[in-house]
Specification:
Length: about 240
């Protein structure tokens, strides 16, 4: 089954663990991978707004040595490409108006992605204000959609879908103070037919449950699990218990 078919099976809510390859040691990566297998994590996303080491390939290979959970690159820039991943979220940052993030970087990355034969997931990536400046909004030089402007988010997601993007990702940014609101998630979900990923600032299982209940199909957790894996199982249950 293709990665996209798995992502778009919306009958089952998906739990994604985001790993920033720069941060953890090998031992920490193996630890979270082993624990992830036990609790039924559906995918790993790997990437970061700014990588300062040449760790992407190594991180992906290490994850794959220890599990069969698919690994998707969630790229922070066009250098974050690897032939070892199972899929690649080709992000068009549709909440912003920076042409480099809408198409420019993609032109540079496209021949390498073709060469590596990665499965490409064309993704409408939308940054939502999470109450603080995040690395991704700074690095992408884009302004997030205001937290309470549900109508702008709905129309942006709809336009992304109409342009042919296969999945929409609402992201408050890693470490956001406030996650995307339940109201916005639910309105965007009702507006589009493609699967909806939600992440950024979901730092408790309770917040994950709220996002799932509001209509998120796929939940991404990064920061909270970097700090501690203690609540990994609770996160998994919060997401998977939302299955319809
Ligand atoms: C960020 O959606 C991801 O792009 C995850 O965010 O690190 O805050 O969980 P957190």
């Amino acid at each position: 089954m293709s990665i996209y078919n798995r992502l778009s099976d919306t009958s089952k809510k998906k739990f994604v663990v985001l790993i920033d390859p720069d941060k953890p040691t090998d031992k920490e990566i193996i630890d979270i991978v082993e624990k992830s297998k036990n609790v039924g994590v559906d995918f790993f996303f790997v990437g970061g707004s700014l990588l300062t080491t040449d760790s992407l390939d190594h991180c992906i290979k290490l994850i794959k040595e220890h599990s069969d959970i698919p690994v998707l690159i969630f790229p922070g820039n066009s250098l974050q490409i690897s032939k070892w991943c199972d899929g690649f979220l080709l992000l068009s940052l549709i909440s912003g108006r920076n042409s480099e993030m809408l198409i420019g970087r993609h032109v540079i990355a496209a021949p390498y992605l073709k060469l590596y034969g990665n499965e490409i997931i064309p993704t409408g990536y939308m940054l939502i204000d999470g109450g603080c400046q995040t690395s991704v909004s700074y690095m992408s030089n884009t302004t997030p959609i205001p937290h309470d402007k549900d109508d702008i988010a709905m129309c942006t997601a709809l336009a992304g879908e109409m342009l042919g993007l296969k999945i929409i990702y609402l992201d408050a940014g890693s470490g956001a103070k406030n996650p995307v609101s339940a109201e916005m998630i639910s309105k965007v979900k009702r507006t589009i037919e493609v699967p909806l990923i939600v992440g950024g600032g979901i730092n408790t299982p309770e917040k994950a449950a709220i996002a799932v209940k509001a209509g998120a199909d796929i939940i991404v957790i990064g920061n909270a699990l970097e700090k501690s894996t203690e609540r990994l199982q609770e996160f998994a249950e919060a997401v998977h218990n939302g299955n319809s």
